[in-house]
Each structure stands twice: as structure tokens, then as C-alpha cells.
Amino acid sequence: MRAMIISDSHGWRKELKQVIDRHREEVDMIIHCGDSELETEASELVGVNTVRGNCDFTGKFPEERVDEAKGIRVFTGHGHLLNVKMSSLQLKYKGEETEADVVCFGHSHVPEAFVEEGMVFLNPGSIRLPRGEVNVGTYVILEVDQEEASVTYLTLDGQEVPELSKTLQR
């Protein structure tokens, strides 16, 4: 399964559309992990599996969702209700509860990808307000199967960030 995952675009419309349009035809799923700050009906989010973030006041997005493509189950939650800035434990519980292969979240604006008990945990960072060691806006292309996950972090203009990208064994 191949997915594009983005988060924390904080009101950017043109840039969000640009990134989504770049990958729309080459992925099985597009996920926005919240804080788009756009309305639910925004044209930029058509066909995008989106959750509500702590800064999403106008949209009526779900707090969390579970989607599936090509036998891979994905749980998505923004993270503010799951204390992601403190620990990954609540994310792990949600992943177990929903029988997820992949757990996507945002909120911290810090890109990270790791595996725990066979589940891939993924924060794509923020395209607009990046934080962390690599201070550049990022999103992710994820290719995952039952054995491994290839996580490619990209900048707003589609350039790979090699120091963040990795292959994880599930």
C-alpha cells in the first residue's frame, strides 16, 4: 500500500493543493492528520482522509478514523487528545484497539517514524511550521506491506529529506 501523509498545514490552501495534486494519482490513500484549519468541504481536501486537530475550529472532521487499502489498516488521530507530546503509549493503545498496521498522527510538528510491536507509527511533521532537528517543512510518502515500511520524507517542493527517510522492519 502506498499513501501520502501530511499534517499541520495550518491554513495553507495553495501549497496543500500543490502537494496533494503532485501525488494523487500515484497513491492508494491520502491522509491529513489534522490542523488543516480548512472547512470540511474545502476543495483542497476532496478525497483526503482528514481528522480534526486542535486548531480545526470550522470543519466537522472526525477526531479519529480508520481506513484500509490493499489489506493495510491505518488509524489516524491528530494527537492532541492522545498526549503525543508526552508519550506514544496512548497511540499504541489506539493502534492495538483498532488493529492498525499503521498509526498516523501530527500535533507536535516533529517528523518521526518508528515500529513498535509490528505497528508503524508515523508523524509527517508540518509543511508550514516545522519543528525538530531538521527545520524544514515535511510530508511523507509511505510504502508498506506486511514485512517492511519505506518512509520517504519530502519537502514542500517534493525534494527528499534523506536524513529523515528510512526503511523500517515490521
Structural class: mainly beta
| Unreliably modeled segments | none
Strand order of the largest sheet: 3-2-1-9-10-11
Q: Element order, helices and strands?
A: EHEEEEHEEEEEE
Notes on the structure:
The structure is a single chain. The protein has 170 residues and is mainly β. It has a single domain, classed as Purple Acid Phosphatase, chain A, domain 2. The protein is built from 2 helices and 11 strands; from the N terminus they run E-H-E-E-E-E-H-E-E-E-E-E-E. The strands form 2 sheets. The protein has a 6-stranded mixed beta sheet with strand order 3-2-1-9-10-11, with no helix packed on it. The chain has a 5-stranded mixed beta sheet with strand order 4-5-6-8-7, with helices on one face. The longest helix is centred in the N-terminal third of the chain and has 10 residues. The mean pLDDT is 96.
Features of this protein?
170 residues; mainly beta; Purple Acid Phosphatase, chain A, domain 2; six-stranded mixed beta sheet; five-stranded mixed beta sheet; 2 helices; 11 strands; 31% strand; globular
Write the layout of secondary structure elements.
Elements lengths: L1 E5 L7 H10 L5 E4 L16 E2 L13 E6 L2 E6 L11 H9 L4 E3 L7 E5 L2 E5 L15 E6 L3 E7 L11 E4 L1
Parallel strand pairs: 1-2, 2-3, 5-6, 6-8
Antiparallel strand pairs: 1-9, 4-5, 7-8, 9-10, 10-11
Give me a quick take on this structure:
The protein is mostly beta strands and 170 residues long.
